[in-house]
Amino acid sequence: MDYLLGLCIGTSSTKALITNIEGKIIASSFLEYQIDSPFPGWTEQNPNLWLESSIKVIRNILNISKVNPKDIISLGISGQMHTTVFLDENNNVIRPAPLWNDQRTFNECNYLLNNIGLKKILELTSNKPITSFSLPKILWLRNNEINNFKRLRKFCLSKDYVKLGLSGKLSTDPSDASGTLCFDVQNYRWSEDLFNMLKLDLSILPEVRPSSEFSASLSKEASRKTGLQQGLPILTGTADTAGEMLGNGISKDGDCLLILGTGGVLLNYHSKYYENDGNLDMFCYPDGKYYSLGVTLSSSASLIWALNKIGLDFTQIERKVDRDIKYLDFKNYIEKDKFSILEKQVKEILPGANGLIFLPYLTGERAPYSDPDARGVLFGLNMNHGKRHILRAVMEGVTFSQRDCYEIVKNKGFDSKNIVISGGGAKSE
Fold first, then answer.
1. What is the spatial distance between Cα 266 and Cα 403, in angstroms, rounded to a whole number?
2. pLDDT, tens digit, for every residue of 172-231?
3. What digits encode the pLDDT tens for the residues 69-78?
4. HEC secondary structure over the chain
5. Residues in the chain with pLDDT < 70?
6. CA dist., res. 182 & res. 355, Å (int)
7. CA dihedral 200, 201, 206, 210 (to 10 degrees)
């Protein structure tokens, strides 16, 4: 029987999945790792950590699945968008890779807006400068680490680096390239005009290959380390958001995918290009079409903040907990079921939280109000509000932030009849 192997290079873990040709999951494996933050606002990782983790999860999934490596016919890789890897002439990593949520490039974004202008940048890339994108990171390297910048020969994204490590071949795909602010999204090519305006060398741009093309094969060394067959075909792969859309069957105009994780991401598929005003991001879809993306930076992160800093209302919980459970370990019981308890508590509060409003901008915001300095707000507190009102307001604030993004989608003429919800928040009633 033939099998397919997939890898996803996430922000907090690398995941592996084996399926059969019909898509039935045979086995899965993951390995967690840390994010480094050497200075306030910085988030980065050593790209070799992703490669080492990929090798480990592959070996582990082969062990637990008992699948013969000879029966695995292809490898596909997706990964976190925007996280930028700087490579020297030997394809060695120059420095840790700034992640998608790194905020160090605020000055570089302002430079682009003040010297190139928003209108021109939208014309060339279909996106506005934000700290997530690769281009501001490249400019930051030039402005702050000149010796490292002089060593720069190529840059790539997370999945591209893992593919490079497994095959020796470097390329990216349109879905990831379009999230760099270096790419002409409308025409599926690098924006040479923008690079020339900024006096950047075009040679640092990686080759762009179709997402579904077999653009590499497993090397002898990678075969020895992973246990996979040498020569195994490797797809160019996709950005993680594009891959999630594909996996959830998002393929018709107006279809939306709402991913409720640490951040909330609203993704909207559209077969035709439209001029973007910058309120949402616009990227290339693996089938040659397009998708728009709106991000609420603190989705479940807002709920976790509220639970950690404000906490559940314990006044009635102990009476409702089974006597045996309470005697065993009440604290562990609460920790295990805190989200289900949270839902039960907020259901007791009427919609609107008695006039209490929460703005979920705990770490700035990306869409539709792109502002790294935006901050969270609880508005309308009075003496009648308790913990449950605050928790309800937090849940509503996150929901309305996602609704802000969806209203932009509707105003573009895509009033979706098909919205798929995924991520941990999909478990919510």
1. 9
2. 999 999 999 999 999 999 999 999 999 999 999 999 999 999 999 999 999 999 999 999
3. 999 999 999 9
4. CCEEEEEEECCCEEEEEEEECCCCEEEEEEEECCCECCCCCCCEECHHHHHHHHHHHHHHHHHHHCCCHHHEEEEEEEECCCCCEEECCCCCECCCEECCCCCCCHHHHHHHHHHCCHHHHHHHHCCCCCCCCHHHHHHHHHHHCHHHHHHCCEEECHHHHHHHHHHCCCCECHHHHCCCCCEECCCCEECHHHHHHCCCCHHHCCCECCCCCEEEECCHHHHHHHCCCCCCEEECCEEHHHHHHHHCCCCCCCCEEEEECCCEEEEEEECCCCCCCCCCEEEECCCCCEEEEEEECCCHHHHHHHHHHCCCCCCCHHHHCCHHHHHHHHHHHHHHCHHHHHHHHHHCCCCCHHHCEEECCECEECCCCCECCCCCEEECCCCCCCHHHHHHHHHHHHHHHHHHHHHHHHHCCCCCCCEEEECHHHHCC
5. 314-336
6. 44
7. 70
Question: Which distant-in-sequence residues (6+ apart) come within 8 Å of 137 by Cβ?
Answer: 84, 98, 102, 105, 108
CB atoms within 10 A of CB 59: 15
**And the tokens for 262?**
């640490």
N-term to C-term CA, the chain: 39
| φ, ψ for residue 423, nearest 5 deg | 90, 175
Q: Closest Cα partner for 291 from 338, 234, 214, 239?
A: 239
Q: What angle do CA 124, 125, 130 make, to 5 degrees?
A: 125
Amino acid type, 116: I
pLDDT at 138: 99
Q: What is the Cα–Cα distance from 281 to 127, expressed in whole angstroms? A: 6
Distances in Å between the Cα of 16 and the Cα atoms of 77, 78, 181 are 9, 10, 29
Which pLDDT value is given to residue 161?
99
256-260/419-422 β-pairing:
parallel
- Per-residue model confidence (pLDDT) at position 298: 86
Q: Which domains does the chain have, with CATH numbers?
A: 3-247 (3.30.420.40), 300-427 (3.30.420.40)
So what's the pLDDT on residue 316? Answer: 56
Phi then psi for residue 26, to 5 deg, are -95, -40
Phi, psi of 38 (to 5 degrees): -70, -25
Structural tokens at position 364? 């700035």
